[in-house]
Design brief:
376 residues, mainly beta, 2 helices, 6% helix, 61% strand, globular
């Protein structure tokens, strides 16, 4: 329970958190720092959101889902530098999103003169490359961990519009994480508080006009932009409650209110922005796990994520039921997880910053994940 199940809990937390509010995606596997020795772990989560409009400009919507599928990779490698100090290299994609709007939504966008962007598809990805270390001390019946490290986060944004294609990129900006943890291994008990800093992305790129925009020529022109991706604080708790049984939970605050707009400037076209006007987000999870045999463990959990939208777009409350299994296979451990998410309906309005009026009904999202870890 102390090692294998806890790594399973990390996987299922990521699977169920893949539908979290805003643009949240993966979390760096810094929990690997609590394991002894050298550990290598990797995996991927595939998410299929099925979000579509119910009405557009007051008319029943006929477009299909505008939310695109995505995958979240994760990798972590930890080594013990000396007895009380361990360090881990981690990789994941912490933020991202992709929307592909149908003909009806595009027509509604074009019909509103105050919405000049006319974008049919938007997509952005981030990659986080981190190095985090933990120094532990004996304290009472357990161990006290002091955790800290830095990471580089890049940013790649593409938007395809009626009159041209915009590409913005930041090759990497710096961020950091700080935390404190306490564990009592014999009871599979752990408490951790982790802070992850905000990252301001400063981008350069270009805008390539299409034939309809001949007034600025057909060659690419320069573009640049800025935007901040949020800081967060997460409290995680877990403990054995009976032989082969464990409960766990977490509460996470994400400062999504920092993302009011993504501002950018296109040569000849001037200053523009994507409007969000988001509120802060909260994600709460609770779960239970059981060790069925020396080779098989399982877990189920429930996650609630508070919607962050204020009317400029639609990001509503989400409830997720997740489950996972861990199987000792070969020299390591195979972890499998899955989740189904219920996404509540919502609305967006031009007066609140939206490009057009629209509503959504209740929608669903599905996630599957798998990973494998080896300990030396």
């Amino acid at each position: 329970m102390r090692t294998g199940f806890l790594s399973l809990a990390v996987l299922t937390a990521c699977v169920t958190g893949a539908n979290a509010g805003g643009f949240s995606m993966g979390e760096a596997d810094t929990d690997i720092l609590y394991q002894d020795g050298t550990v290598i772990s990797g995996g991927v989560i595939y998410v299929k959101p099925q979000v579509k409009y119910k009405t557009i400009s007051g008319v029943k919507a006929t477009d299909g889902a505008f939310s695109d599928d995505f995958a979240i990779p994760s990798f972590a490698a930890k080594t013990q530098i000396f007895d009380p100090l361990g360090c881990a290299f981690t990789y994941t994609q912490p933020f991202g999103g992709s929307s592909n709007y149908g003909a009806q939504a595009q027509a509604a966008d074009h019909a509103v003169p105050t919405a000049p962007n006319y974008y049919s598809k938007k997509k952005f990805t981030t990659n986080e490359y981190g190095l985090t270390c933990a120094l532990h001390f004996d304290a009472g019946p357990g161990r006290l961990f002091l955790i800290g490290g830095g990471f580089i986060q890049d940013f790649d944004y593409n938007a395809y519009s009626y009159y041209g294609n915009l590409h913005l990129k930041d090759d990497g900006s710096l961020g950091y994480r700080l935390g404190v943890g306490y564990d009592i291994p014999q009871y599979a008990m752990r408490a951790q508080l982790m802070y992850r800093s905000a990252v301001k992305q400063k981008t350069d790129g270009d805008f390539t006009p299409i034939a309809l925009a001949g007034f600025i020529g057909s060659s690419a022109v320069s573009a640049n932009g800025t935007g901040t991706l949020p800081q967060s604080v997460k409290l995680s708790l877990q403990s054995g409650i009976a032989p082969d049984w464990l409960v766990y939970g977490s509460v996470k605050w994400t400062d999504w209110s920092v993302l009011q707009t993504l501002d950018y400037n296109i040569t000849y076209l001037g200053a523009q922005h994507d409007a969000y006007y988001w509120k802060d987000g909260w994600t709460v999870q609770t779960g239970v796990g059981h060790k069925f045999s020396e080779k098989v463990s399982g877990t189920v959990n429930v996650t609630w994520d508070k919607g962050v939208s204020s009317g400029a777009d639609i990001w509503t409350d989400t409830w997720t039921l997740g489950a996972g299994a861990l199987v000792k296979l070969g020299p390591g451990e195979l972890k499998l997880g899955g989740a189904v998410s219920y996404i509540s309906g919502g609305s967006q309005y031009i007066v609140d910053g939206a490009n057009f009026n629209a509503t959504t009904g209740t929608n669903w999202a599905y996630s599957l994940g798998g990973g494998y870890s080896i300990k030396f």
